[in-house]
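Notes to self after the call with IL:
- keep both proteins in one doc
- input above output, always
- annotate only the second one for now

Protein 1:
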Amino acid sequence: MDVQELIDREQIRDVINRLSRGMDRLDESLLRGSYHPGAFDRHGATDGLAEDFVNQFLANNRLTALWHGINNVLIDFHGNDAAQAESYVTAYCYQRDGSEPRGNLITYVGRYRDRLERRDDEWRITERVVILDWSEQRPIVESDIADKFVSGRRDSSDPTYQSL
């Protein structure tokens, strides 16, 4: 493995992580910037152009909180400018019941199978297939401890967007 391959691997991991952050924070620029034009996404109920997935996701996402954990990213290169990655993912989707401190938590556990290409010296996804291994839904009551922490937000007011 040479230095360029190490750089490429890190850039690919960054694209995968940015797309998850884009979904968690409803960040349109991160979402759109993770796909090449004309990319395809098979994302549950959405099966078509990634641009359509992003539009639908931004228009219809009313979750109180969404959190993606990405790990076990395995990358196989096909020449210098194409790669396939498999990433394990756990996604927690929480929807609060009105203003009450309770709601429903849906947990998805699966994998992303991404095809990526480097175009104009930038790695982006050309095809994503979401593979669901299992999921669960359950009612939850929020813990009182949440009041003692800085709250996360699903937009640019989230603390991670503040510079140090």
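Protein 2 (the one to annotate):
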Amino acid sequence: GVRVDSSVVSDKGLKLGAGTYVLQVGKRKFARVTLT
């Protein structure tokens, strides 16, 4: 599944505000994303 800051995302239309997030896809793929 997909996680944002270690919480599972079930909503495909999730809206994130500005900030820095850690996205995890599967067990090994991580990305740090900064939205402004």
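Annotation: Residues 6 and 24 are 8 Å apart (CA to CA). The radius of gyration is 10 Å.
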